[in-house]
Amino acid sequence: MKYLGSERVITLPFEEHKTAEDYAGIMLSPLSIKGQYKVIKTVTKYQSYEDSVDYNTFISNQKTWKKDNGYQCVTITGKSLFIPSGELGGNCVILEGYYQDKKYQIGIYHLENVYVKEQDIIRNNTLLGTQGSTGLVLSNKDLKDKTYGTHVHVEVKNEQGKFINPRPFVDESILLSLDPKGDNLVKEDEKKEDEIPQTPPKTDQTTPKENEEMTLLFTCPKDDFYFLKLKKGEKLYLVKNSS
Description:
The protein is mainly β and 243 residues long. It contains four helices and 17 strands. The chain has a single domain (2-191), classed as Glucose Permease (Domain IIA) (Distorted Sandwich), CATH 2.70.70. Helices cover 12% and strands 33% of the residues. Strands 3, 4, 5, 6, 11, 12, 13, 14, 16 and 17 form a ten-stranded antiparallel sheet that branches. Strands 8-9-10 form a three-stranded antiparallel sheet. It has a two-stranded antiparallel ribbon with strand order 1-2. Strand 8 (66-67) and strand 9 (70-74) form a beta hairpin.
């Protein structure tokens, strides 16, 4: 099923987790959420680990593994891995919005990339980032599963700061709004966008001479995702094939 915009499965339900829910999907798969939100916090400084720590093993050894300001863990392949306490959630995005006059916060953790920043206002499936394995990515997967613990950890808090089941928020059963009274703002906003003529923006038709002979063809298989990175100042020209 699609959770947070991509195909994912629940690996640790809220009933067992108690404070959150875990969703496993493809490493680097895109993350998006439908609705209207304000970004109130991001963490972007961590790198994904190639290995992860088994959930039950961590719980059993949490006290003995505690060292200075973190944990000296043993990964599921037997390697030693130190993870600072502040890194446990890895890269993350925390969003804020309203539903039926009540405010909620949604925290999304263990990301590889984060594409939004604090104070951003996001609407209608804005790309938040990509799934990763940053922080203490707990796992009980088989060693043959090379994705190990890569997953998305999602927490939702209500106005009282109590953790509640995040599933309705990630499967689009509940859509948050920027306005406490604006439960319908999401649908209205989407309707307006649909009514906008889908005409391409006017662009500079002058092509740099050094690129006159260059032709780039991109193909995207249905289930794969590709990211094109451009350096500051570079331009990407898209030309329709007329043949």
